[in-house]
Design goal:
By secondary structure, this protein is of the alpha/beta class. It folds into 2 domains: 3-90, Beta Barrel (Elongation Factor Tu (Ef-tu), domain 3), CATH 2.40.30; 101-258, Rossmann fold (3-Layer(aba) Sandwich), CATH 3.40.50. Helix content is 28%, strand content 30%. The protein is built from 9 helices and 17 strands. It has helices at 23-28, 69-75, 110-123, 143-148, 168-178, 190-200, 236-239, 250-258, 278-291, and strands at 3-12, 15-21, 34-38, 46-49, 52-54, 59-65, 82-83, 85-90, 101-107, 127-134, 152-157, 164-165, 183-187, 206-210, 226-229, 232-235, 242-244. A 7-stranded mixed beta sheet has the order 12-11-10-9-13-14-17, sandwiched between helices. A 5-stranded antiparallel beta sheet has the order 5-6-2-1-7. Helix 5 (168-178) runs parallel beside helix 6 (190-200). The radius of gyration is 22 Å and the shape is globular.
Length: 292
């Protein structure tokens, strides 16, 4: 089975949207789940949250930021191009109820992930307060979509190029000091989610976070998506990716995220003395083996 790209959209300089034909996945998808895809056979696997599913077009929507080589290649695909593999849906979905006043807080690419949650919250009758932020106006995505589903909306950019200057966490802090919310959902950077949980914990407001560690197989076999929740190791691909934020060890989560970052080897200082040639070092190494 092949998976054809039905629609492609550039949301900002390095953020793309793809609508992909995936009829079997559309039948089973649940809010909060994700897929794993490979552009070509033997390519790197990419895990991405499902932003939306269209039963009429039999397609799923993925929104992603081109943060590495594999995602850049994905972003270069065009309409009618085919993707070799889209597997899923994986993960546990989230059950949405009518709680009353619900806040959704997200920054960066996390705005895409929180959009479907906020939409579902409104559909069952909640008053949804949306808080979205980014570093610049150009990287603040999905503004119009978030406005349509908001009872109130708050936006911020760190450079002050749009709406309020500063972090969106600060806007949520100000709101929480004056108003009451019954539930909170948050997605995006680890720092934002940790900060939101620090604000809601003393007020005992139930808070869900959307974690996105690297997920390679979606079945828990590889263990690459290990996170610590309530003092126990959990696998985001089978136990999540949405967790009770007050139980998540964010220090461990940040270590997990940073562990996947590659070193820029060409920028590292050489440990070899310029006075000793590589051939001499190799010759000494071989002599050491022969002596043994």
């Amino acid at each position: 089975m092949t998976f054809r790209i039905l629609n492609r959209q550039v949301l900002s300089n390095n953020i793309k949207r793809l609508d992909i034909e995936a009829p079997l996945i559309v039948r089973q998808v649940w809010l909060g789940q994700f897929v794993i895809l490979s552009i070509k056979p033997h390519d790197d696997k990419i895990s991405l949250p499902i932003i939306d599913a269209d039963s009429q077009r039999k397609s799923i929507t993925l929104i992603f930021q081109e943060t590495d080589a594999a995602l850049i290649r994905l972003g270069q695909l065009q309409i009618n191009d085919e993707i070799y593999l889209v597997a899923g849906p994986f993960g546990n979905g989230v059950t949405i109820e009518k709680w009353g006043s619900v806040a959704c807080i997200a920054d960066g690419i996390g705005i895409a992930q929180i959009l479907s949650v906020a939409r579902a919250l409104k559909q069952v009758g909640n008053k949804v307060m949306n808080f979205i932020g980014a570093s610049t106006r150009a990287s603040l995505i999905l503004q119009s979509q978030m406005r349509l589903i908001s009872y109130k909306i708050f936006m911020a950019t760190e450079d002050g190029s749009f709406e309020k200057r500063g972090r969106i966490l600060d806007a949520f802090r100000e709101f929480l000091n004056k108003d009451k919310v019954d539930r909170v959902f948050t997605a995006g950077s680890a720092e934002l989610m940790e900060g939101v949980c620090a604000l809601t914990r003393p007020k005992n407001i139930k808070t869900w976070v959307c974690l996105n560690p690297v997920m390679l197989d979606g079945t828990g076999i590889c263990g690459s998506c290990r996170v610590t929740v309530d003092g126990k190791i959990r696998l985001a691909c089978v136990d999540g990716p949405i967790f009770d934020g007050h139980s998540v060890n964010f220090e461990d989560y940040k270590i997990r995220l940073n562990a996947t970052k590659e070193f820029a080897w060409d920028n590292l200082k050489s440990f070899v003395s310029p006075k000793r040639s590589e051939s001499k070092i190799f010759e000494k190494f071989l002599l050491g083996i022969l002596k043994k």
